[in-house]
């Protein structure tokens, strides 16, 4: 059975363009022009993944409000922002509300579909029986590659897909500096430096929420980031 992707976007041409592209990839698509329309549909049944614009009609932050409502209903529903509003402040706001990813509208359709595939792959791996898999262990950290799962002191860290791949890039080669370009390649996103910085800050905060003494990620000024050796 095909997965259902809901698109909440107030611009008809953009909505139609994304819907057509995703249908070509085999997804069932539910397009919604407003937050109210989406809410009515989601009250009956949640889709398998939701793509949301931040500004919806006369609600400049309607997408943020919808994300908050959806995350309260489901901790695992993949939520992806796709918006022209890609300032550092907006990205951080979206991620704080529990979005799994935040992409700019100039993101290519192949990048968007790659991100959707990655979100579904993580859902599938978490639901599947645990099999033999690649596991990285470093001090209090455990990273399970196939399940895209990270634990610190045996407590799961609720990372988005983008954050997971950034942690994976650093943990695979502890002590090696990963440039922002390398982190972007690993996470399959194209964003500016400020957005990479936002992701790293958020990753640190998630670990610090479990352990106030967490200090494993070094910023190497002018070069990038590394997981301590």
TrEMBL record:
Residues 4-120 form the Response regulatory domain. Pfam families: Response_reg (PF00072), Trans_reg_C (PF00486). GO terms for cellular component: cytosol; protein-DNA complex. GO terms for molecular function: phosphorelay response regulator activity; transcription cis-regulatory region binding. Residues 133-229 form the OmpR/PhoB-type domain. The modification 4-aspartylphosphate is found at residue 53. This is Chemotaxis protein CheY. Residues 133-229 bind DNA. InterPro entries: CheY-like_superfamily (IPR011006), OmpR/PhoB-type_DNA-bd (IPR001867), Response_regulator (IPR022305), Sig_transdc_resp-reg_C-effctor (IPR016032), Sig_transdc_resp-reg_receiver (IPR001789), WalR-like (IPR039420), WH-like_DNA-bd_sf (IPR036388). PANTHER family: DNA-BINDING DUAL MASTER TRANSCRIPTIONAL REGULATOR RPAA (PTHR48111:SF21), REGULATOR OF RPOS (PTHR48111).
């Amino acid at each position: 059975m095909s997965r259902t992707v809901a698109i909440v976007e107030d611009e008809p041409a953009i909505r139609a363009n994304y819907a057509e592209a995703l249908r070509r990839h085999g997804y069932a698509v539910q397009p919604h022009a407003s937050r109210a329309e989406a809410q009515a549909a989601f009250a009956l049944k949640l889709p398998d993944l939701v793509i949301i614009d931040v500004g919806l009609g006369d609600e400049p932050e309607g997408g943020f409000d919808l994300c908050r409502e959806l995350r309260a209903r489901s901790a695992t529903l993949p939520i992806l922002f796709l918006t022209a509003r890609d300032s550092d402040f907006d990205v951080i706001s979206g991620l704080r509300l529990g979005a799994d990813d935040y992409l700019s509208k100039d993101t290519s359709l192949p990048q968007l579909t790659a991100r959707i595939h990655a979100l579904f792959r993580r859902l599938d791996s978490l639901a599947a029986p645990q099999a033999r898999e690649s596991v990285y262990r470093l001090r209090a950290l455990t990273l399970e590659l196939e399940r895209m799962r990270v634990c610190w002191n045996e407590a799961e860290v609720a990372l988005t897909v983008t954050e997971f791949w950034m942690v994976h890039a650093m943990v695979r080669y502890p002590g090696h500096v990963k440039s922002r370009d390398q982190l972007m390649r690993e996470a399959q996103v194209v964003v500016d430096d400020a957005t990479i910085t936002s992701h790293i800050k958020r990753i640190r905060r998630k670990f610090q929420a479990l352990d106030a003494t967490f200090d494993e990620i070094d910023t190497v000024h002018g070069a990038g980031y590394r997981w301590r050796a």
